[in-house]
Amino acid sequence: MAKDMTLLWGSGSAPCWRVMIMLEEKQLQGYNQKLLSFEKMEHKSQEVLDMNPRGQLPAFKCGKHILNESYAACFFLENQYKSQGTKLIPDSPDAQALMYQRLFEAVPLYQKIVEIVLYNYRVPEGERHDSAVQRNKEGLTAELKLWEGYLNKTDCCLAGKEFTLADVLFFPNVAFLFRLGLSSERYPALTKYYNGLKDRPSIKATWPPHWQTTPGPGIMNTV
Amino acid sequence: MWWAGAWNKTSLLCISVPLLTSFTNHNIFCLLSAVALHSETMAKDMTLLWASGSPPCWRVMIMLEEKQLQGYNQKLLSFEKKEHKSQEVLDMNPRGQIPTFKCGKHILNESCAACLFLENQYKSQGTKLIPDFPDAQALMYQRMFEAVTLHQKIADLVVYKYFVPEGERHDSAVQRKIEALTAELKLWEGYLKITDCCLAGQEFTLADVLFFPLIAFLFHFGLSSERYPALAKYYNSLKDRPSIKATWPPYWQKIPEMDTMKPI
Predict the structure, then answer these.
(1) From A96, which residue of chain B is nearest by alpha-carbon distance?
(2) Least CB-CB distance to A79: which of B109, B137, B164?
(3) Which of A7, A48, B8, B93 has CA 20 to 30 A from B125's CA?
(4) CB of B65 closer than 8 Å to CB of B242
């Protein structure tokens, strides 16, 4: 089963990491995988475009099914392997509702992170404004304040005591933020969440390889 | 509401079993009435704060129709009067956004979250919106989440003048956003050409619940049918679907100073 799966991924990419955590949680180790380089523009290679016309990673093939959106891959895997590995969608309606709400709120969080990180890539020099950079930073700060609030009211995980799909999708965003220098003092609840999960086997096993060898840029220092 | 599903299963059993045993007609009638009352009670525990013409709000409304949950409490709010930033909304949704949806005691303000939760809780009620067949299911999930990207590209363009102060605006930026949306729609034209009437094949699924409102929005604001024939065909074949017709926006918000989708 895992041998019929192929993942093209890039190190440090939160969406790629989500799928990798998922595959570990569902005990699907042994899948075919290829590490590609964003810097060398390998995400725009023919190999990727054949699987993903958007030229983005992850590009994931599960048997004959193509699931390039990380959320789609994770939902599909949970559905297809419900009785294997960790149960990631709780039956209890309380936990389930909270899980769905948080995992979709993680979408605007990721968007706000990416807006800052990719600002200079996406916006031509003549269109850049310090005021825009400032607004983006304020947007992310307000967003993170919300998440501090959410994490202060929950247990170790987003939807309560159990690790769920919401954590699979959200944790990489948080790890990315800390990698980029987010302040632990300003965000104690996020820090506690991060520390509480960073040694979880599925997460440790799939930690971005280059994060262990090189320091990250301090883009989020002042957020 | 785990017991909703359990009740429905029980009600089905209680309909078939009595035919084989000596249950009286009266008891069957009571059970059927109880099931009907039960569904109404459920919808009555739901509250939706919404705005007309907002695709995320529309998704939740289509979903509620598809799952036969009519009779929910609802309040129509106005973006123009900034009612989405009112205390009433903020009490349910600290983001000050709509839809704001309360399902019993559960708050589900993200439209995708509300739809997925409703499908899970009411699996055996109304239309089955997540197919079991892996081919269709995989395609449904893939398209559902690609629709998030489409939504973003529409929003980027539509709210440009709303969110970007005048001193920071550039025609070149608007042009880039138009090009990005055009490229995105080209992808969807391709997808729709290789499928049946619906995104994941022959069956209407959750992907269509989430995607259709975006398409209706685009055509309302002038997207060209000639340039996008597959999208137009999709739109025309679904616009009269009962759940969609019943929840059609009573009016469409005017987008401030925004040109229409004609250049796309």
Answers:
(1) B117
(2) B137
(3) B93
(4) yes
